[in-house]
Specification:
Purple Acid Phosphatase, chain A, domain 2; disordered N terminus; 8 strands; two-stranded antiparallel ribbon; 26% strand; six-stranded mixed sheet; 151 residues; alpha/beta
Length: 151
């Protein structure tokens, strides 16, 4: 994925600013329940631990998720990347109880990759000229593309 990021929550920083300011807060993930579900515990904020739930490759499925403070969907929210699939996935993510919800697109989430769709317009599955990335209702989900977010 290339280009700018639409961020709806928090403060964005560059990778260099993040690494310089808080190198001790790098999270380590471990597989918890199959290849698509990982849990990580980031550094504590004060004395309060932060629980990060990291999922990927859900491909339109909406599994039950463990509780946490931060939910990260790390790619392939959809099967084909149509407007309807992306919007349904965003609605599901937005309905989760996690305080912060972050989406990073995968290769199946083609609606979010404008450069790819410009090159391969036939991959615009199930959408019309009126259904574009800008028309999605994000519902408090932060979309990151080539950027970092401090929450």
């Amino acid at each position: 994925m290339y280009g700018a990021t639409r961020a709806t929550n928090g403060h964005k920083t560059t990778r260099q600013q993040h690494q310089a300011a808080r190198p001790e807060q790098e999270a380590r993930c471990r597989v918890a329940a199959g290849p698509a579900l990982m849990r990580a515990t980031a550094a504590s904020v004060g004395n309060t631990p932060v629980r990060v739930v990291c999922i990927a490759d859900t491909h339109n499925k909406q599994p039950e998720l463990p509780p946490g403070d931060v939910l990260i969907h790390a790619g392939d929210l959809t099967e084909r990347g149509s407007f309807g699939e992306v919007q349904a996935g965003l609605a599901w993510l937005a309905a989760q109880p996690h305080k912060h919800k972050i989406l990073v697109a995968g290769n199946h989430d083609v609606l979010l990759d404008e450069a790819f769709l410009d090159k391969y317009p036939e991959r615009r599955y199930g959408q019309t000229d009126r259904e574009e990335k800008e028309d999605l209702v994000w519902g408090g989900v932060t979309y990151l593309e080539d950027e970092l977010l401090t929450v």
